[in-house]
Amino acid sequence: MIINRIRRKLYKLTHPVEGEIWMLHRVAEERSEAKEQRELEVTPEWLEAEINAYRQKGYRFVSLDELPCRGPWVVITFDDGYRDNYTLAYPLLKRLGVPFTIYITTALIDNQMEAWWYPGRSLGMSREELSALAAEPLCTLGAHTVSHVKLDTLSREEQRTEIEQSKTQLEAIIGREVKHFSFPHGAHNQDTLDICHSLGFITSVKSWGGSLRRGEWSNPLPRIDKQQP
Ligand SMILES: [Zn+2]
Asked: How many domains does the chain have?
């Protein structure tokens, strides 16, 4: 027990924190009552205060394409592709000069599919909004499957279809290469990693794992589930 604790302490000393990749979902003026929705939502005011607090601590906000770079840094990411990322997060982050990544579940574009965790709501971004974001230097667009499926429940062939189609569908809309991928629910296995590699993705991210420490630069990258209290 003591040996393990010392080993862990030694590891932390020799592998200092380099940065944090934040996982966010929705930005909303008013958060939902239901816990499972509420924990996916942050207000613009809270996000701005959090960014300012990190800047005061000496963190730089960088884009995924700048990694690996000298820390301490923060990369802001949003999963799924909600319309409020365009209407609320984008103007805020633009004003603050903060780069951000949005991972798009392509069936949510133009609400072809409903996000079943928000029944009866049409929260997906439109093609036009996506194209506008593609022209914004602060914004990086990544893929997040077609149908938001748990990839580790699929066969290798089915996984390949989900991952590859989300990449090509998104590329067709934004007119540029998509190089970053996020696993829905963080779920993945070795097939997922092999497929992402063979399709040319530079990074992939999971939904947990905390800070990124020195020497931990490998896919999938860890993220911090950034929740407003
Ligand atoms: Zn997701």
From this structure: 1
